[in-house]
Amino acid sequence: MKNVTDSFVSLGHWPSAGSFGFNTDILATNPINLSVVLGVLIYFGKGVLTDLLDNRKQRILSTIRNSEELRRSAIEQLEKARDRLRKVETEADEYRVNGYSEIEREKANLINATSDSLERLENYKNETLRFEQQRAINQVRQQVFQQALEGALGTLNTCLNSELHFRTISANIGILGTMEEITN
């Protein structure tokens, strides 16, 4: 624990005059900070992230299955419509003399309506998939950020002790006193 406290104390220079300085050696401080943050993220976030991704995967697969069922239903409707079309075509041959143009119009309307219905179902499936994917990504990002923040705060709270708090407060009071003397 002494080494951890010393690493925090070494971030600043503590001369007897009460001034405060920073360790500006980027090569010494940034890799350590990055490795600590990455280590905490990997250690605390790996299991939760895996569970979240598995849950999202199951939901997305369920949505895909539902969409496929809707697609199958639409295909069945299309087959029924095609059967009806065949029936209409048969009747059209019988009634060709009396109403050929009317039957052709009904045929076109039936095909267009079925085609439109299939297109709407396909668009709905695609929109649902995109929405679920984006929502899953946003949810995972938010939870990873929250867990990283909680982990960092927990680590920070366990590393700080009352002696370090007292020294930090005393140094800040000294700095404020020096600043007050300078402004007067």
State the total count of DSSP E strands: 0
Terminal CA distance reads 41 Å
Q: Structural class from helices and strands?
A: mainly alpha
User: Main sheet, how many strands, which sense, barrel?
Assistant: none
Structure, explained:
The protein is mostly helical. Helix content is 89%, strand content 0%. The radius of gyration is 35 Å and the shape is rod-shaped. The two termini are 41 Å apart. 0% of the residues are buried. It is found in: Membrane; Plastid, Chloroplast thylakoid membrane. The chain crosses the membrane at residues 32-49. This is ATP synthase subunit b, chloroplastic.
Keywords:
3 helices; ATP synthesis; mainly alpha; 184 residues; rod-shaped; 0% strand; disordered N terminus
Give the topology:
Elements: H1 2-9, H2 26-159, H3 162-183
